[in-house]
Amino acid sequence: VDTRMFTLLMLNLTCSICLTIFTDPVMLPCGHSFCRECISLSLSKLCQCPHCRAAVPKEGKCLLTNHILKSLAEKEAEKLRGKHRDEEVDDRLCPEHEEKLKLFCITDQQLACIICRDGEKHEGHKFKPIKEAAASVRRELETFVEQVSDDICAVESIGSKQREEITKTKEKSQQLMTQICRQFEEMHQFLRKREDEIKKDLKDKEEEAMEKMSETLNAMETALSENRELEGKVTSVLKITDYERFLKSWTEENSMKTAKRSFKPRGGNLKVVNPPLSLGPHESHLQFFMWQEMLQVIQPRAEDNRHSCPSYTEDTSVRYASAYSTNQFTSGQHYWEIEVGKRDYWKVGLQKYYLSYNEQKYVTSSQNKVTNLTFTGRPQKIGIYLDCMSKELSFYDAENMTHIHTMREGCLSVPVKAYFEYKFSKGADHNPLRVCLWNS
């Protein structure tokens, strides 16, 4: 009976438009009542009662408050609010023993009551008062948030440096592009095809460098986003001042505890990448190589006086000649060529970094480190390109600019000298090595 009466009462105190307890109820001439806001909106569209469809005259739109219904509705609303408060209070009780939750089980990481402590389920477990446990967890979380904040700062700093490197790379690319365009203009229509090929090569190198740097920046931004999200979640928990709610919120968010345990600062592991953007010899000697392709329109000038007098090593059947250049390379980009002809033995390059040919095998040597190459051609002229800034030494078949090998030695120090060595039979040498040098 009580339930039936309560249901009947709720139906009489409910607006038939919004289906909730009346708020500022008013009564129409037909006797039906509605919330003032609900009926005002309804009458603005159709001048009739939503319940019985009775017409409401214009003068009837001045609605009067139904004070009796308003009083009953307010009392019922207050009862419902009190019921919700009682339910909230019940959340503080142990669901198993209906005792107040005063303890925190350190072993199980959960709230407990006095009866829970003495029960078999928590036998041998360690307990702390809620306030003391909350203080301990709070200190732990505050330290954790500091770690996350420090990592955010580290990632932001390194991300800023990565953006600077991206900008510098774009600027360097644009400078090289401008230089290429200017040089190609001097060679007219014949060089248009080669111009497009080399510009594409530069663009590919730029895209490759940008892809690597963008991947690194994306990883940095992902780490930053994840750290900020984690910081926000933990900070929101730390804002809870009520001890019980604080611990309950922390322990019920298993994902947050898991994130704390699995958190690893990434600011120290992320590194700014800056792949080198270089066109090799095309960057500093572009016109020369293009002119070589134009049926040797430009004739190289011999510089036989660029090397010192060779020293000889006597042998029963052959003689070895070697020499260093009198000039030293200290900076910039340099290119020179050495005509090796059909000799079956020679070494060309720098003093401790050179390419050697012996018995149809090509080998590079750098500070006593020997590397066998798979190159199988037989060039008559070797082109040597030295970039002092990037410390790279490259070898080419000078007749068609086929790349043979590039030595990237971080330990290469300037100044350095050009070097060559070759073998010849006893007697007069009618085919000496010829050296041609071009500086950038």
Automatic annotation (TrEMBL):
Show the GO MF annotations.
zinc ion binding
Q: Which residues form the B box-type domain?
A: 89-130
Record keywords, A-Z = Coiled coil, Metal-binding, Signal, Zinc, Zinc-finger
Q: Identify the residues that the record assigns to the RING-type domain, covering every copy.
A: 15-53
Tell me the first and last residues of the signal peptide.
Answer: 1-20
In terms of SMART domains, this protein maps to: BBOX (SM00336), RING (SM00184)
- Which segments of the protein form a coiled coil according to its record? 188-233
Q: What name is this protein filed under?
A: Zinc-binding protein A33-like
Organism of derivation? Seriola lalandi dorsalis
